[in-house]
Amino acid sequence: LSVIEQIGSIHGALVGQYASFNSEAYIYQDGSYHEATIGQEGTGHYARISQTGMYHSADISQADMYNEADITQSGEGNLSTIVQVSWYNSAFVTQDGFKNQATVMQSGGGAMGGGHMVIVNQSGSMNTANVTQSGFAGSANITQTGHGNTAIVHQ
């Protein structure tokens, strides 16, 4: 299932579901100059991107099985990327403000990999959050308010 809804002007949206069974992808864009991409390969994924304001960019890539990703952007010029490989990963990014950046990379090692959880909440401007999770069952929760904060998590 793929749903794209665009309101406003000069948006770009792409959903690619490759050899993907029972996966869902949703993109909602309101305002101007947004870009959103969702790529899914495997089974049972859920991905949603919601953009309001101007000049946001969001990318979700999912492989293997049963991953969940959600990006919500408001304000101007926010950038977010979520990459999920392996099983049962969850990532939720909320950006409100100006030029915040979030990157989430979730992977597993071998048959027991995956099961990670990430929550990133950014408000204010020019905050950066980078999360890399490998192995099994990592958990990270990042909240950034204000200006110019940086958070890096490796698990």
User: For the CA atoms, what is the radius of gyration?
Assistant: 15 Å
* Low-confidence sequence ranges: none
Helix content: under 10%
Bulk shape: flat
Largest sheet: 7 strands, parallel
Biggest sheet strand order reads 1-3-5-7-9-11-13
Q: How many strands appear in the DSSP assignment?
A: 14
Average of pLDDT: 96
**N-end to C-end Cα span:** 32 Å
Structural class: mainly beta
The string of secondary-structure elements, in order, is EEEEEEEEEEEEEE
So how many helices? 0
β-strand percent reads: over 45%
Structural commentary:
This protein is mostly beta strands and 155 residues long. Helix content is 0%, strand content 73%. The chain has strands at 2-9, 12-21, 24-32, 35-43, 46-54, 57-65, 68-76, 79-87, 90-98, 101-106, 117-125, 128-133, 139-144, 150-154. The chain has a seven-stranded parallel β-sheet, with no helix packed on it. The chain has a seven-stranded parallel β-sheet with strand order 2-4-6-8-10-12-14, with no helix packed on it. The model has no long low-confidence stretch (mean pLDDT 96).
